[in-house]
Amino acid sequence: PVLVFHAEAILTNDSYLRLIGERYHLSYKIVRTDSRLVRSILTAHGFHEVHPNSNDYNLMWTGSHLKPYLLRSLTDIQKVNHFPRSYELTRKDRLYKNVSRMQLAHGFKTFHILPQTFILPTEYQDFCNTYSKDRGPWIVKPVASSRGRG
């Protein structure tokens, strides 16, 4: 089954939006993060919050990656907001490394999906050489620390 969440639910008191969560006694827990928006949206859709130590939940929203043993213990009706090794796609440095590996294996044309990228300080000299020919614009991203803050 798929549930569609509507952000505007937190602005209205629409009993129709709460119906599924309430009818099926859906629950969530939030672990190692303070996600007020997620909490508000889930509550507006009829989910009720359980204690972070509870194993009786349908959705676990966590601020960190989960250990493999925890993922293996999930039941069919339990979902989480993180997947194993998702950082391989969500961290820009890891995405670049993975796409570079695919370019070597399958050709640059097939995987020409990223702008020219340099991992500093390792590729600093390559960046300087390229920068002297093309002054920009360039985007600078800190490794593994952005989290939506720039």
Automatic annotation (TrEMBL):
Q: Which GO terms describe its biological process?
A: microtubule cytoskeleton organization
Q: Which InterPro entries match?
A: TTL/TTLL_fam (IPR004344)
Q: Which UniProt keywords apply?
A: ATP-binding, Ligase, Nucleotide-binding
**Highest taxon of the source?**
Eukaryota
| Catalysed reactions listed for this entry | L-glutamyl-[protein] + L-glutamate + ATP = gamma-L-glutamyl-L-glutamyl-[protein] + ADP + phosphate + H(+)
Gene Ontology MF terms in the entry:
ATP binding; tubulin binding; tubulin-glutamic acid ligase activity
Instruction: Give GO cellular component annotations, separated by semicolons.
Output: ciliary basal body
Pfam families of this UniProt entry? TTL
Question: What family, per the record?
Answer: Belongs to the tubulin--tyrosine ligase family.
List the protein's name: Tubulin--tyrosine ligase-like protein 5
